[in-house]
Amino acid sequence: MSAPAPATAPAVSPATGRGERVLCAMSGGVDSSVTASLLKEQGFEVIGAMMRFWPDDKRVDTFDTCCSPDAAYEARRVAEQVGVPFYLLDYREQFQRHIVGPFLDEYAHGRTPNPCVNCNTKVKFDELVKKAKMLGCRYVATGHYVKRVVNAAGGVEFWRGDDPRKDQTYFLWGTPRDALPYILFPVGELEKPRVREIAAERGLLTAHKPESQNICFVPGRVQDFVAEHLPQASGAIREISTGERVGDHLGTQFYTLGQKKGLGLYQSHRVRHVVHLDPATNTVWVGDYDDCLWTGLRASRANWLLDVTDVPAELDVQVRYRSTPVRARVVHADAESFELAFVEPQFAVAPGQSAVLYDGPRLLGGGLIDDHARELPPIA
């Protein structure tokens, strides 16, 4: 495998819009508000749009910040301030099909999903790009903290945003490669405080709006939401080294790898971690810390933002949004999957989460982490 060509100076967007039409995704937050304002100043013909995800029977404490009726109202008012048209686009059916349904299905299969990755991949940078083309737009723009870089060959790459606390490339590994040239990130080279300053300087009403942190469609705790939609089924908690039954549970969907609290084991003084979930036998397997260390991972449903033949032999991989990237050797990579060997073992790499690949700041792609093919002991 050869190393990819080095990139030239980053280009957040074309130097000038020159009247090019761009569909700007507006969430009612400060990042997308500043995005629309900057694009207008750069000479683009901006069309503001918000994707409606919330249902008519929206529950209390869901879709309350970034994806809410109030946010839509604020996005429309910002569009008026900036002087661009605004449309509310109905994506309720797609959201249920691509986000909520798979979220519950993954838990039912003993995996830990990240719905924000699916939302960006299946909806924002798939459905929204299609809508942009229908509206005659050359580009789609969002308020993600990602840098759009043009390499020496003229191709477009995604790089980590300049604000390390806000970098959002982790969520964009599934972006279709052929869509990269048509996506703009005007705040990608800015830090969050500067974005708020720009919003305040322009008098945008979202300048001091707080950020959304929770999963938009989940009211309260994820465990409670899962319990409402997936049936409980009591089963055994077993020791991974012996097969001994050491506790009971109400469903594998309520656990995740690495978990050590709330296990309710018979011998409660022993520190145990969840090391494997087996919905087929309705068994939760627990063990020592060392039992939860992964020396590598396999991932499927891969998406590459470069030719597979150009994937470097060693790269950085990030297995959680807030985790530090770690060095890994590429054991195998093809169009659909890849296998990595960590330089140092990693704790509780959760199946269903994303393994996102980087070469320095450049986003290379990623995939969904598969479980270990581990040999389980006989049931005692």
Automatic annotation (TrEMBL):
The record marks H144, Q353 as: Interaction with tRNA. One of its GO terms (biological process) is tRNA wobble position uridine thiolation. This is tRNA-specific 2-thiouridylase MnmA. It catalyses: S-sulfanyl-L-cysteinyl-[protein] + uridine(34) in tRNA + AH2 + ATP = 2-thiouridine(34) in tRNA + L-cysteinyl-[protein] + A + AMP + diphosphate + H(+). Catalyzes the 2-thiolation of uridine at the wobble position (U34) of tRNA, leading to the formation of s(2)U34. The keyword Disulfide bond applies. One of its GO terms (molecular function) is ATP binding. It comes from Deinococcus metalli. Disulfide bonds join C119-C216.
